[in-house]
Design goal:
Elements lengths: L5 E2 H8 L2 E4 L4 E2 L1 E3 L8 E4 L16 E5 L11 E5 L2 H11 L18 E2 L4 E2 L4 E2 L4 E2 L4 E2 L4 E2 L4 E2 L4 E2 L4 E2 L4 E2 L4 E2 L4 E2 L4 E4 L4 E2 L3 H9 L12 E2 L6 E3 L4 E2 L4 E3 L6 E3 L4 E2 L4 E2 L4 E2 L4 E2 L4 E2 L4 E2 L4 E2 L4 E2 L4 E2 L4 E2 L4 E2 L8 E3 L4 E2 H33 L1
Parallel strand pairs: 4-5, 5-6, 6-7, 8-11, 9-12, 10-13, 11-14, 12-15, 13-16, 14-17, 15-18, 16-19, 17-20, 18-23, 19-24, 20-25, 23-26, 24-27, 25-28, 26-29, 27-30, 28-31, 29-32, 30-33, 31-34, 32-35, 33-36, 34-37, 36-38
Antiparallel strand pairs: 1-3, 2-7, 21-22, 38-39
């Protein structure tokens, strides 16, 4: 969207709708109907929001096809057939982009770029960013300020790498990737050799624990890297560890929310959704189209199939087959978890009933 906004008719063209009424009205942003201002378009494509139009000041609203918009007191309407699809198209048309902060020059004078880097002619690189040896960056990409890209990294076309991102050696990003601020891709994995492996095995398998010996814990260096497919998006503050030997991989189309941690050797399929604060431990495999709700934790060396949905705060500690919906800690099928929770809530009544029965039996024995 340009700085001055879009007219109602222009917005209708952008989102595939039909403008009826005064198409010259200028729109600067979308808003909920109840709080919309005169220069904002009210989002009422879902009929349940239409009643709120009278509470706001919108002159234009996005409405379902066939709506009598004049009866709603509007000056114009953008009529659409699909509320969900409209949200996607409208968010693109009215997006306020993260502007380049370094003026008209594509590459800021403070950027440090190794002479061996292969950078497409139209790539923009911001202040104080560092591009290492043998890096390749595809056409149309924007590297914002204070980004560090280590040696032998490959970034596809039309990438958006935002401020403060750190990309480690040999990482590969596909086309159309978006990496938000302060994310780290290619950190070393948490791999160490403990002096007493039996103590950890016993804790895991038998529930017993003993102290580690006084010998030092030895570091296992990470020799793999990270490979991202096309159209992968990562929120702010994520950390993706490089593999120990093989690469950590994230499939095309997968979207990752803020503050997600993906450990070494993890393999994530295509078109997955990982919500905020998800943590996936090392060497775990996630299938395609799987959704992990906020704060889901996944144990190491297990597999989670395709088309799985894990409710927020679930703790997945064993393999989950494809197509399952799980919930709880430990995560089990959602229906079983709900039944278990119902039983838990009934416990106080059950204890009271048991106490009552015990008293009745005791009184009978006394009699």
């Amino acid at each position: 969207m340009n700085a001055s906004g879009l007219s109602a008719s222009q917005l209708a063209n952008e989102i595939g709708g039909i403008c009826d009424g005064d198409g010259t009205i200028l729109i600067t942003k979308p808003a909920e109907p109840a709080v919309a201002l005169p220069n904002e378009v009210a989002l009422a494509a879902d009929p349940k929001y239409m009643a709120q139009l009278s509470q706001g000041q919108a002159r234009v609203a996005i409405l379902p096809m066939g709506t009598d918009w004049q009866a709603l007191g509007l000056e114009a309407a953008i009529l659409v057939t699909s509320a969900r699809k409209t949200m996607v198209e409208m968010s693109v048309a009215l997006e306020i982009p993260w502007a380049r902060a370094w003026g008209q020059d594509l590459i800021h004078k403070t950027a440090i770029i190794d002479a061996s880097a292969d950078i497409a002619d139209d790539v923009a690189i911001g202040p104080f960013s560092i591009i290492g040896p043998h890096v390749t960056i595809g056409a149309g990409s924007v590297i914002h300020d204070h980004v560090t890209i280590a040696q032998d990294v490959s970034i596809g076309a039309n990438a958006q790498i935002y401020a403060g991102v750190r990309i480690g050696p040999e990482v590969k990003l596909g086309s159309d990737c978006i990496i938000m601020a302060n994310t780290v891709i290619g950190a070393d994995g948490f791999s160490y050799l403990t002096p007493n492996a039996d103590a950890i095995r016993a804790a895991r398998n038998e529930g017993t624990a003993s102290a580690l010996s006084d010998l030092a814990i030895e570091r296992i260096n990470s020799l793999g890297s990270v490979v991202l497919g096309d159209r992968v998006e990562m929120g702010a503050g994520c950390t993706i560890d490089r593999g120990t030997i093989k690469n950590t991989t994230i499939g095309s189309g997968t979207k990752i929310d803020n503050m997600v941690h993906i450990a070494h050797n993890v393999q994530i399929g295509e078109n997955c959704l990982l919500c905020a604060q998800v943590g996936i431990a090392g060497s775990t495999i996630i299938g395609d189209r799987t959704i992990l709700g906020g704060q889901v934790g996944v144990s190491d060396n297990i597999s989670v199939g395709s088309d799985v949905i894990a409710a927020g705060k679930s703790a997945i500690s064993s393999t989950v087959g494809s197509g399952q919906t799980v919930m709880g800690n430990p995560a089990i099928k959602m229906a079983l978890n709900i039944e278990s929770y119902k039983g838990y809530r009934r416990l106080p009544r059950l204890f009271a009933r048991v106490k009552q029965l015990e008293e009745q039996i005791a009184n009978k024995l006394k009699g």
